[in-house]
Amino acid sequence: MSSYRNVDRNECIKCYRRDPDNVNRYCLGHMIGYRTWCGATQDNDVGDFVRRHQNDISFTFQIPRCVNKVIKYYFEMQVEFYCNVSLETAGAVQYTTTRFYVPQTTFDENELTSIDYIIGKFVEKINDFNEHQKIPWIISRINYLRLCWDVINHR
Questions:
Q1: Residue 39: its pLDDT value, please?
Q2: Phi-psi category of residue 10: left, alpha or beta, with phi > 0 → left and psi -120 to 50 → alpha
Q3: Which domain holds residue 51?
Q4: What values do phi and psi take at 139, rounded to 5?
Q5: Average pLDDT for consecutive 10-residue bins of the chain (155 residues)?
Q6: What pLDDT score was predicted for residue 3?
Q7: Are β-strands 138-151 and 33-38 bridged in parallel, bridged antiparallel, or unpaired?
Q8: CA distances from residue 61 to 12, 90, 109, 150 in whole angstroms, order as listed
Q9: Which pLDDT score, from 0 to 100, does residue 58 have?
Q10: For site-directed labelling of 20, which of 13, 70, 74, 78 has its Cα 20 to 30 A away?
Q11: Pairing verdict, β 33-38 and 2-6
């Protein structure tokens, strides 16, 4: 299931308040639209999840590009993790949910349509997250993937 919305600037400010990577600087402080692909219980592999939606992701990116000459964008993915807190205590499982951001690094249209690039960036962020943990976390579910965009005004 996916959804598309044009949003007002105040609604997107809420997104920035939960933005640990300061992604808003890539989108000029406001968004004009986003699309979200929701995960299901069985979605626990980043590559499979993104590949399943790759045609819709590319199509979604083309909509604002057809209307506006240049856009800025970023991807946001919310992932739910679990880990066994103690090997001695069976069933002692801890859960956490984290958002990962992949900002635009170029204006090259091929970057967005390269699904392997997007997957690689998310996997890199998840691996970085796990490197800083005492116990490795395992993906239990991908809650959603969101593509947000804004128009760049050239003068």
A1: 94
A2: alpha
A3: 2-151
A4: -70, 125
A5: 43 46 50 87 93 89 72 87 74 86 70 78 92 87 90 58
A6: 44
A7: antiparallel
A8: 18, 46, 9, 11
A9: 84
A10: 70
A11: antiparallel
How many residues in total does the chain contain? 155
Residue reference for tokens 């640990």? 20
Task: Say what the pTM is.
Answer: 0.74
The tally of domains found in the chain comes to 1
> How far apart, in whole angstroms, are the C-alpha atoms of residue 95 and residue 136?
12
**Residue 11 amino acid letter:** E
125 within 8 A of 47, measured Cβ to Cβ: no
Place of tokens 């929701």: 38
Q: Kindly state the tokens that stand for 22.
A: 């300061």
Output the pLDDT for position 85. 74
Alpha-helical (H) ranges within the chain are 9-17, 46-52, 54-67, 109-113, 115-131
